[in-house]
C-alpha cells in the first residue's frame, strides 16, 4: 500500500516542494527524480514529526541537489550561450531570429532560430520543438542504416518521437511503428544506433531470447558496450 502527499521544506529562505510517499520500507530515503524534483520515501507508520526532523537533517543535501536537471529533462528557460546536450556533447547554443523553430549547426555549435529569441521561456519551448524535429531526422537516418534486419513484409517502420523516461524505445509489429525517446538525441550516435538496431531487430524477434541476441550481436558485436555507455550518460 502506498499513498503520497506534498510537504514544503524551507532551506536558507528557499522553499522546496517534496513528494512524500509512504511505503512498506524500514527507513526514510530522500532522492531526486529524473525531473530534478525531491522525493521522500517513508515507512507506512512514520509520524509527521519524524519526517520533518529527517528533512531538516537533509537540508544541506537538499539545497545542493534539488533542482538539478537530469538527462531526462529539457530546460524551462533558454538564453544565449546556455549549454545544451546534443549527440553526446554539451554545446553552447546561439539564439537567432527566424520564421519557425529550427536547429542548425555552425562549427559544431547549435543555432536555434525562432521568432522571439529574447524570451527565455519561448526559447525553451522552441528548442523542444526543434530538438524533436532534429531527433526525428536523425533517428530515421539511423534506422535506414539498419533496415536490412527488418523483414520486407514490414516495409519501413514509421518512427515516432516521444518524451519517454522509463525506456529508450519500443517496436510494434502490428502498427509498423518504432517509438524512440526524445532524450535519446542527447546521447552519442553510437548509443543511438544501439537503440535503433535493438528496436529494428524486434520486427523479427519480439522477445529477448537467444534468436534476438544472435541477430543483434551479429549486426553489432559491441552492442553491450554501447548500451553500457548509454546508461552512463543517462546518470548525468
Summary tags:
single chain; 236 residues; alpha/beta; Zincin-like; four-stranded mixed beta sheet; three-stranded mixed beta sheet; 6 helices; 12 strands
The biggest sheet amounts to:
4 strands, mixed
> How many E strands?
12
Architecture of the largest domain, CATH level 2? Answer: 2-Layer Sandwich
CATH H level, superfamily name of the largest domain: Metalloproteases ("zincins"), catalytic domain
Cα-based radius of gyration, to the nearest Å: 21 Å
How would you describe what is shown here?
The model has no long low-confidence stretch (mean pLDDT 90). The strands form four sheets. The protein has a four-stranded mixed sheet with strand order 1-2-4-3. A three-stranded mixed sheet has the order 7-9-8, with helices on one face. A three-stranded mixed sheet has the order 10-12-11, covered by helices on one side. It has three domains: 3-65, no CATH class; 83-136, no CATH class; 138-234, Metalloproteases ("zincins"), catalytic domain (Zincin-like, 2-Layer Sandwich), CATH 3.30.2010.10. It has helices spanning 48-57, 59-65, 120-145, 189-201, 210-219, 223-234; strands at residues 3-11, 14-23, 29-32, 38-43, 83-86, 89-92, 94-97, 102-106, 109-114, 158-162, 169-172, 177-181. The protein has six helices and twelve strands. With 236 residues, it is α/β, with parallel strands linked by helices. It is globular and about 65 Å long.
Amino acid at each position: 500500500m502506498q499513498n503520497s502527499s506534498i510537504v514544503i521544506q524551507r532551506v536558507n529562505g528557499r522553499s522546496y516542494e517534496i513528494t512524500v510517499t509512504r511505503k512498506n520500507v524500514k527507513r526514510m530515503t530522500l532522492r531526486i527524480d529524473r525531473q530534478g524534483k525531491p522525493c521522500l520515501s517513508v515507512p507506512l507508520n512514520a509520524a509527521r514529526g519524524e519526517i520533518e526532523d529527517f528533512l531538516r537533517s537533509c537540508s544541506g543535501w537538499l539545497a545542493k541537489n534539488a533542482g538539478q536537471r537530469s538527462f531526462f529533462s529539457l530546460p524551462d528557460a533558454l538564453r544565449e550561450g546556455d549549454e545544451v546536450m546534443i549527440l553526446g556533447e554539451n554545446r553552447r547554443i546561439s539564439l537567432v531570429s527566424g520564421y519557425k523553430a529550427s536547429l542548425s549547426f555552425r562549427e559544431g555549435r547549435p543555432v536555434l532560430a525562432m521568432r522571439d529569441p529574447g524570451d527565455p521561456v519561448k526559447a525553451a519551448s522552441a528548442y523542444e520543438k526543434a530538438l524533436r524535429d532534429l531527433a526525428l531526422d536523425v533517428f530515421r537516418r539511423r534506422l535506414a542504416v539498419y533496415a536490412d534486419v527488418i523483414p520486407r513484409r514490414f516495409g519501413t517502420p514509421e518512427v515516432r518521437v516521444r518524451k519517454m523516461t522509463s525506456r529508450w524505445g519500443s517496436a510494434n509489429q502490428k502498427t509498423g511503428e518504432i517509438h524512440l525517446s526524445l532524450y535519446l538525441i542527447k546521447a552519442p550516435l553510437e548509443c543511438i544506433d544501439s537503440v535503433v538496431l535493438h528496436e529494428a531487430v524486434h520486427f523479427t524477434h519480439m522477445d529477448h531470447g537467444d534468436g534476438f541476441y544472435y541477430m543483434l550481436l551479429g549486426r553489432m558485436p559491441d552492442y553491450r558496450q554501447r548500451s553500457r555507455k548509454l546508461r552512463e550518460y543517462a546518470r548525468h
